[in-house]
Amino acid sequence: MHIHKLEKIWLAIGISMLFVFLGVLGVSAFAMGVKPPSEHHHRIDPAKVTETAPFDKLGLFKTGEKEYEAVMTAFTFGYAPDKMEVPVGATIKFVVTSQDVVHGFEIPGTNVNMMIVPGEISQVTHTFTKPGEYLILCNEYCGGAHEYMKTTIIVK
Ligand code: CUA
């Protein structure tokens, strides 16, 4: 079969584009693979969350004068620990991971809004200067009872 010269050129361009595309894919996969671990995205095995520090001991821990660390897990459909209470002015460092799927971690009225990805540890720090009941809500759709996935922090 005779292939017109113009068709040959287009064929060559098509093949080169394919290789450029594959090259870009390869380079980005490589770049992601060698990305240095950032402080906010430690890797963790989601199947072994309950036996991996710090998640082998969930809860609210006092780390200083009015400073706390809240080690928490998100799961379908809730958070552990379920309820926490801190004094007014407390600064809480939330350290959170997921035991199953992607969840949200939002405290309305604050700047706290994280995506909780299985296999990653997400951290955010917030100071609660006003007393009240603060809801922690899931804002990533995660299944049937997604809209009921929440817990409370009592500041008093
Ligand atoms: Cu968890 Cu929506």
From TrEMBL:
Described function: Subunits I and II form the functional core of the enzyme complex. Electrons originating in cytochrome c are transferred via heme a and Cu(A) to the binuclear center formed by heme a3 and Cu(B).
Pfam families named among the record's database cross-references: COX2
UniProt entry keywords in alphabetical sequence: Copper, Membrane, Metal-binding, Transmembrane, Transmembrane helix
Signal peptide: none
Alphabetical list of CDD domains matching this protein: ba3_CcO_II_C
Native source organism of the sequence: Paenibacillus phytorum
Coiled coil location: none
Subcellular location, record wording: Cell envelope
Reactions accelerated catalytically: 4 Fe(II)-[cytochrome c] + O2 + 8 H(+)(in) = 4 Fe(III)-[cytochrome c] + 2 H2O + 4 H(+)(out)
Gene3D superfamilies (alphabetical): Cupredoxins - blue copper proteins (2.60.40.420)
Domain Cytochrome oxidase subunit II copper A binding: 45-156
PANTHER family xrefs: CYTOCHROME C OXIDASE SUBUNIT II, NITROUS-OXIDE REDUCTASE
InterPro entries listed in its UniProt record: Ba3_CcO_II_C (IPR034214), CcO_II-like_C (IPR002429), Copper_CuA (IPR001505), Cupredoxin (IPR008972), NosZ/Cyto_c_oxidase_sub2 (IPR051403)
Transmembrane segments: 9-34
Protein name in UniProt: Cytochrome aa3 subunit 2
